[in-house]
Amino acid sequence: MRKLIAGMKLSVDGKIEGSEGYADWVDAWSDDYGVTSQVDACLLGGGMYPGYEQYWTALQNEPDKPLPMTGKLPTPAELEWARFSARTPHYVLSSTLTSSLWPQTRFVRGLEDVAVLKQQPGRDIYLVGGARTTTSLIDAGLVDELRLIVYPLVAGHGKALFATAEQRRGLDLRKVQQLPEGRLGLVYGID
Questions:
Q1: Is the peptide bond before 14 cis (omega within 30 degrees of 0)?
Q2: Nearest-CA neighbor of 17 among 44, 50, 45, 48?
Q3: Do 74 and 62 meet the contact criterion of CB atoms below 8 Å apart?
Q4: Is the dihedral of CA 145, 94, 105, 58 positive or negative?
Q5: Please, are residues 121 and 35 in contact by the beta-carbon 8 Å criterion?
Q6: C-beta atoms surrounding 80 within 10 Å
Q7: H helices of the chain, where?
């Protein structure tokens, strides 16, 4: 069976967004948590997908222009992720979205559809997010691995990664990696 691997960036106090509604401490969204070599599909929630599609489409179409959300030129890693995302099927968990700009995007309507997706042949699936989708899939027992990049700051007010968690879940620490600028890479198996 394919593994579903979630990756998220967060502050030391567990926030994925600050009080302004975004993670202003994240310089680039291209960190792939080491998953690109082992996945052949991405899964996102319907709340996150429109902005994700807009961001990476802008980068794919105009790689030499500043990005719409950051105003900065793309990094080499962002250009690599844009190429990866253009050729990789994306599944969107949504009961309302019905169309996308990307031809390789498909919609899944419920948790049972995600379970079926995991049973299909292929490599692992990268759960890009958002937080609500990640938490609901962890609560449903569908996420096999959680990869976090922890930033060395206390965000204070903001959106917590597990704010909507409904149950306690054990984690098995598999890897710790010190990253540049005081960040930590953590890999957990989920019991």
A1: no
A2: 48
A3: no
A4: negative
A5: no
A6: 14
A7: 49-61, 76-87, 111-119, 131-139
pLDDT band at 70 (very low <50, low <70, confident <90, very high): confident
| Predicted structure pTM score | 0.93
At residue 22, the pLDDT reads 85
Torsion over CA: 125, 92, 11, 23 (sign): positive
Examine the pLDDT at 68 and tell me if it is beyond 80.
Answer: no
Residue with the bigger pLDDT between 77 and 90: it is 90
CA distances from 146 to 10, 57, 64, 129, 163 (A): 12, 26, 33, 11, 16
Domain CATH code at residue 146? 3.40.430.10
Domain of residue 177: give its range. 4-190
Q: What are phi and psi of 143, to 5 degrees?
A: -90, 130
Contact call for residues 6 and 137 (beta carbons, < 8 A): yes
Comparing 24-38, 78-92, 99-113, the range with the smallest average pLDDT is: 24-38
The arrangement of strands across the sheet holding 184-190 comes to: 105-108, 90-93, 39-45, 124-129, 4-11, 145-151, 184-190, 171-178
Domain count within the chain: 1
Residue (of 177, 183, 185) closest to 152 by Cα position: 183
